[in-house]
Amino acid sequence: MQGLSKLFNRGRRYNDISVSIQEHIEERTEELMEEGRSREQAAQAARREFGNVTLIEERSREVWQWSVLESIVADLKLTLRRLRKSPGFAAIVLLTMALGIGANTTVFSVINSVLLKPLPYPNQGQLAALTLRAPGAEGLADFSSGLQLSPSMYLTFSERNRTFQSLGVWTPGTASVTGLAQPEEVQTALISDGVLETLGVLPVAGRWFSPGDQDPRGAKTVMLSYGYWQRRFGGDPSAIGRSIQIDAQTREIVGVMPRGFKMVDKEFDLLAPLAFDRTNQKLAPFGYEGIGRLKPGVNLAQADADVARLIPVWMDSWSNGPGTNPHFYERWRITPSFRSLKQRVVGNVGGVLWVVMATVGLVMLIACTNVANLLLVRAESRQQELAIRAALGAGRGRIARELLTESVTLGLMGGVIAAGVAYAGLRLLTAIGPAELPRLNEVSLDLPALGFALLLSVLSGLLFGSIPVLRYARAAAATAIGNANRTASTGRQRQRSRNVLVVAQVAMALVLLVSALLMIRTFAALRNVEPGFSDAVHLQTMHIWIPDLLIADPQTVTRVQNSIVDKLAAIPGVSSAGFAGAVPMENNDPNWDQIGVEGKNYEGGDPPLRLYNYVSPGYFKTAGTKLIAGRDFTWADIYGLRPMVMVSENFARESWGSSPAAVGKRVRQFTNSPWQEVIGVVQDVRQHGVDQDAPPTIYWPAMLNDPYTRQPTIDAPRAVTYVIRSSRAGNEGFLSEMQQAVWSVNSNLPLASVETMQDIYGQSLARTSFTLVMLAIAGSMALALGIIGIYGVISYAVSQRTREIGIRLALGAQKRGLKWMFVRSALLLTGAGVAIGLGAAAALMQLMKSLLFGISPLDPLTYIAVPLILAISAALASYLPARRAAAVDPVEALRAE
Amino acid sequence: MAKNPEHRDLFPGALEIMILQSLRLRPMHGYALVKHIKQVSDNLLQVEEGSLYPALQRMLREGLLEAETGLSAKGRPTRIYRLTDAGVRHLEQEVVSLEKMFAGITRVLAVAPA
Fold it and tell me: For residue B85, what is the enclosing H or E element?
């Protein structure tokens, strides 16, 4: 209040001061006149005695001001006025800043949402992902996520641990829901007791599963996701208690989970209890993801130690059936290596994101140096003004403040536009970002992101503003006023700060270009890898699962699958069809088996584990996997349960030396199981992605005798992926014809994951292509900014040295020599930048090693090409202004002032 | 008190005391203050106008003085400064502390070598 009234009274105060001072001088003048001087003389003397009226008035007024704040406002007004007067400069700077800050804010909000923000569970710091390491089982499968738990492990660990409040296992899956509308395939998560307790998120309606629901002989129940509840029941609370048919099993809905709840990293429609049957659990299979909530104060190392103690207990408590060695897994050397759940969710995407962040950060730095360069030129043209102000008593701080006000204002204005850029950028990024990027739907332009943009605006403003300040705020008044105008050319020193900036720019651009080129080379190398299938664009894939409750008999399952293949193959435009347990790069391998080759002795007695797959006749032909030797399965082989297998080329070479040699040889799983004959060898398939080696693989026929049971029992895979070769793949009409074909066989079968092989292939390359796109954008921005930087510096040098050029020409300098002089100076700067950049790139690229494939981080071609590109660009960028220099008319130049 | 010592003639705070003491005798306008201090000090003290007017404004802001419209000795409109009660109290405090300081300085000077 007092402040306000002070503000209102100020006008009166200022007037008082003027009146007082006026009267002071009047009175003194009259006194002097009384001493006998003329009025004029007296007035002059009185004024001289009094001193600087304006200054004293100002000092007196300042008493009533918040002086610092008000002079900042004045600076701000001045800045805005000056910017309005040079709209071109303002536009370039604002655009550069907006793009730079916008790109950084975009990437930052992704990093913040994906890597930094806690998971949306209460006390998420206590949550652990229960992964195991099994170095003795290396090479079994994609081991990047470690060994998962088996049901018997879960039972042992959950009952005997001392470090967890709760723990449980879960597994994702699909199920078909019938009886609501069309048969629908939905995403499910099957969970054990302890999973919901661990995550700690309460249902919005109904209740969690009770221990009774986990009893295999108890009531059959299900929980819904919020989305499924809305979609199928319109959010009706009376859905609780109703029943739905899931995989032909009637289940009662007991609860609904809240909006946004995910099963660790998975979106799901339905949650169902795993309901393990204790009485017939074995040691294997290791297919369940474990999560646990640590007791307060317990850390991961303690939990590791606690569970390590339980692994022998687990082997003592269970077996893999009579006659098997329960301590077989000692060879696997299983140890717990628990991670925080967040680490599990985020996975290895952190590397990519930090590389992208570093990249856009570098672009930002380059942009800042460009802006600093522009500001230097501007400050230079104001040098005289600044010098005069310094001579009139403006302090160094005062001038620095004005220059910084200008740059920070530019930064902030850029930041405002950048918020819009970031918003658009985020939408783009979520659209092109790799599908595997976890938590992508949590990404938004939130408060921390906007705070980051603000911080970045101010910091970059201070950064590019500080360079002219360092140069000019301390410029000695006398030398500046005295010298500025009459020298023939600019001082060496003045050009130097701009040169340093250009060198820095070139160095940074080089680092970015090297990284972009390495990614391009990586991508090319990946594209050149033979994936084990061909013409992926025209290869349609889809999943169909036949639950036991729908069709119990395995032979009937195979016949249904066979009919589906025939119907699919009969669709117009389809050249062939088949199915397999899993198609490449989809990350749902069937499993692995111990495969012994006839006539071989294995160290330790047990043969190694091999990846296996089930295939139908015609699968390889449809997928485009080349048959190297022997023949494919026939339906007669399948229905006749003939003991036959096919193997991959590397399996054949490893076991028998060559593919032709493999045909007719025999393998088996257990010492008491019958031998199986190898009838064909197919080309290696990059099952886990083009950047992973093709695993040696054995292909079982689509129906076979289960070797795990005492009596021969016929078994057939129930979840298979169909492949259809057609020029119409992916086409909407084609999809509905496929649906009709399947339903003409059995109308209760939903189609799921309908994708072309190209989609799957693209997704497996997504991480690389995403990094590539980001680096390529950043690299080209860096190159463009670098060229502009060089062009700017040389052309400014030319304009400053016009007089010198005139003198040189007048004295007989050759035009070619003059041009070369400027081009050479640009090349020298570039050379210095390249030298620094090469060192930096060589060091930094080691950090990118994990993203590269098939080339070294010191790839010679890249390290030669990029400096060449930069040198050529620099030569071009400097040639244009250099030509202008050579075109100078010496008479004009010398006359010009 | 005086944050930036711009008094080359008087030490910080002394100008304020002179002004307060002068205005305690009677309300005055600026020029009269300068003349008064000069006369009373027998030309020993010269008040710089550059210091006087900012000092007056500071003291107005702190409530030690009041300004009112009045007439100068020559009958022209000007501002007359008058001491407030707070100004009187402040002056008394300042005089006490000034006397202490002088006493201290005098004692220190007294022990100088003869």
Answer: helix B85-110
